[in-house]
Design brief:
Helices cover 29% and strands 30% of the residues. By secondary structure, it is α+β, with helices and mostly antiparallel strands.
Length: 124
């Protein structure tokens, strides 16, 4: 088993790894829209989603996976009104892959967080 960290302060404080790789599987923890280098968060939900996927794709690459290996995605969105503005960013990131997905409307741990994305990838 291999654990991957992005260096996010949330990981150590909340006791989790950004991703865990085991054999052909990669489980990427929920990623929010922070730019982890600067710890800044855009206001726009679509930009937050783009940041989520940039982090996810980077972590997958570190683990030896590609975006095409994503089998499952779970979105947590804080406001149903953000679903339509979010759709173009989701299409850009996963439109050609179309993994199995669930979208949940729920609160997140910080008020600036509008979306969290979690993925599971499997190598062929």
């Amino acid at each position: 088993m291999h654990r991957i960290s992005t260096g996010s302060p949330f990981e150590s404080r909340m006791a989790y790894s950004r991703a865990v790789v085991r054999d052909k599987w990669c489980f990427v923890s929920g990623v929010t829209g922070y730019d982890y280098a600067s710890m800044t968060m855009p206001e726009d939900v679509a930009e937050q989603a783009r940041n989520c996927f940039a982090t996810i794709f980077d972590v997958l690459a570190q683990a030896g996976f590609s975006r095409n290996d994503i089998m499952r995605v779970q979105y947590t969105v804080t406001d149903p009104a953000d679903v339509e503005p979010l759709a173009p960013a989701l299409q850009e990131s996963l439109g050609d892959i179309r993994p199995a997905a669930t979208m949940i409307i729920a609160g997140l741990i910080r008020p600036e967080m509008k979306i969290e994305v979690e993925v599971t990838a499997l190598k062929p």
